[in-house]
Each structure stands twice: as C-alpha cells, then as structure tokens.
Amino acid sequence: MNWLTPLNRSNGIFLALITAVWMMSAGLKDPAFAETWTDLRGTRTIEATLIGKIGNSLVLRNSSGRRAVIPMNSLNADSRIKAEKLLEDLRTDQNTRIGELVARAEGAAAAAPNPLPTPAEPPSYQAPPSNASADEFAAAIDEQIRAGHLRVLFDALPPSFKTKLSQSIEASNESSVIATYDKPNDLMHRAASAIYDKQNWFLSSPRVKAMTPEGQDLMRGPVLSLVGAIKAATNPNEFSSSAVKSLPFEQLIAKMDNAIAPYLAQAVKQLGNTELASYELGTSRGPATIVKVDDGENQWDLSLEQVEGMWVPTGFQQGFDGFVAAAQTASSTADPAQQQMAITMATAMLAPVEGAIAGLENAQTANDYHA
C-alpha cells in the first residue's frame, strides 16, 4: 500500500475513535504550523500534524482534516528523529494534563484547600486621637473598625473608664467564675475549626447548596471569614482561662485583636463596606455635640459628649458606671457552690452540642460530614 494512501472506511472509524479518545485525555491543541514529513528516498513529502502513534506507525492529520497512518520505517532519519521528539512532547503534555485532572479531582474531594487560605494582613492599628474634634474622633473609630481592629472600642474609652473596666474584668478573672470559661471556649473553637478546616465540605453541604447564589456567596465569603475569626479568638493555646488570667486586660485585648483583625478586615471587604462614612459637625445641644453621619445610603445624627479628652455617646457615662458597679458586686459576692452548680448545668447543656461537633471532627468524607 502506498504510504500516503488514505485510510479505508473501517480503519478510519477505528482511528477516529482512538484519536479522539487520545486527544481528549491529553488535552491537546493543534500546533499553529504543520510539520514536513519525508519518505526514505527523500523524494516525497507531506505537510501534516502529528497527533499520535499506533504501534510503530504515526497518526498524521493534514490541513483538510484527513488522517493517515504512516509506518515509522517509511520515513527518513530526520523525520523519525523529529517524530520521536514530538511524541515525547505529546507524552509530557498528556502526563501533565492527567496530573492536573488528578489534582483537581483530589482537590474537589478534599475537606479544604491545601494550604488553608490565610487572609492578608490588615492596615496597622491606630489608636483614636485624644482631644480631637467629635467628627474626627468618630471617623477614626470607623476607619479602625473597617480595618478589622475592634480594640479601638476599648481604646476609645476615657482613661478612667478603661482603668475601671480593666480592674473589674481582672477581678472576675481571679474568682472561680473564670473556671466556666474553658468549656464553652473549647467547644466554640472546635466548632469553628470543624467548619473552617473542612470548608470545602461545609460549602458543599445540601443546606448551603439549597441557598440562593447570593446566600452561597455570603457563606463562601464573609461568613467563612467570621468563622475564621472565631477560631482564632477561641484558640485554647492562646486564650485559655490561664492565659486570660496571666495578662492585663488591655494586653489581652491587643493580643486578640492581632489574632482576629485579618479575618474581620477580609469580611468587611467581602461585604463591600470599605468606604468610610462622612462625618460633619452639627449644632451643639447643651453638653452634647451632634455629628451628622452619612454612609451613602442613610443619614443620622450622633450625639457625643467629651470626657477626659475622648468622645462617648451622650448618657454613656451613667450607664457605664452602673455596669462596672454591678460587675464588681457580682464578683465580690459570688457563691462558690452556686458557681459550681452553674458549671455543672452548663456542661450538661453543652453535651449534645459536643456530640454534634465530634461528628464533624471525625468525618472522613464529605458524605460523613453531611450526614
């Protein structure tokens, strides 16, 4: 048979099937230019694309799409060398494509991306300025909250308020009430970890899949970021009761802020709330200063009064003093027996929750996780 004779009908069907399967598995595309193939005598050539090999024969396709099977030993040395090089390239492409498909399949079946996504570092924290105007002070707090830094709410308090609050919380930490902290903190951390560390399975759960596209985006974005923040804030290695007791409250707030700010800042961006509202001074009403706030959709008045160089909501001082006094009284008059009873009751109430969390933690497949 002449080496350029087109395939007969039956061979053509077989070859077309083989070629289609081979090319699909390899994910190949035609090169921009066909190769020139020359016979042993060097007198006959063909312009065609090499698309594969069957046995000791090459599968070629010409510009019109017709295929031919050419025995390797019918080609001259240069064409055979070229064929071996191109076949090696095809095998490399095929192996790469197979590896990509395997990795994609494994990634789809995995509990979470590897490595777990890590949010970018937020802007550096800036404490609110003292003795600033009311509008500047409010804008500074807004900016830090949008950057994920909730510690600004503590630092925005007047100095004496910060001292009273710190002393009250540190006093309660010294009492037996702190013993109730570890159990719920541990469960919160385990629950958040079971979601964040297995986020692929969480996002593929039937309940999430049944949501609207907007709801699924919310889960995939800010909700997952907030879960990451909870996981960081309840890390028992960093925020156990012993760690809480060992640090002054202000240092504890700063440490927790460093842990959760990246996740909160990411959630703010995912919600599209990065633009600061505008703050303008309004008229004064007695000791109160009015700040007009406009976030682009809503406008409202914010009533503030200055205390020790800082601005607090009007009437906040009276409410704050009452809160601190109540907390100090509760801490000093706490009955150890009642506290132990509360711990026992809380542990019993949390038992079902712990069982559900354990099921998520022990899941080995997505089906186990969704059960």
Throw out a few tags for this protein.
single chain, 371 residues, alpha+beta, four-stranded antiparallel β-sheet, 8 strands, 57% helix, 14% strand, disordered N terminus
Tally of separate helices: 15
Shape: elongated
- Main sheet record: 4 strands, antiparallel
Q: Mind telling me the C-alpha Rg?
A: 34 Å
Strand arrangement within the widest β-sheet reads 1-2-3-4
Fraction in beta strands: 5-15%
Helix content: 55-70%
Give the N-terminus to C-terminus distance in angstroms: 64 Å
Structural class: alpha+beta
The string of secondary-structure elements, in order, is: HEEEEHHHHHHHHHHHEEEEHHH
Can you count the beta strands?
Answer: 8
Q: Average pLDDT across residues?
A: 84
**Which spans of ≥5 residues are poorly predicted at pLDDT below 50?**
1-32
Notes on the structure:
This protein has 371 residues and is α+β, with helices and mostly antiparallel strands. Helix content is 57%, strand content 14%. It contains 15 helices and 8 strands. The chain has helices at residues 9-26, 77-109, 134-146, 152-155, 159-174, 182-196, 199-203, 206-209, 213-233, 236-239, 241-246, 249-271, 316-332, 336-362, 366-370, and strands at residues 35-38, 45-54, 57-61, 67-71, 278-285, 288-294, 299-307, 310-313. The strands form 2 sheets. It has a 4-stranded antiparallel β-sheet. Strands 5-6-7-8 form a 4-stranded antiparallel β-sheet, with helices on one face. Strand 5 and strand 6 form a beta hairpin. It is elongated, with a radius of gyration of 34 Å. It starts with 8 loop residues before the first helix and ends with a helix.
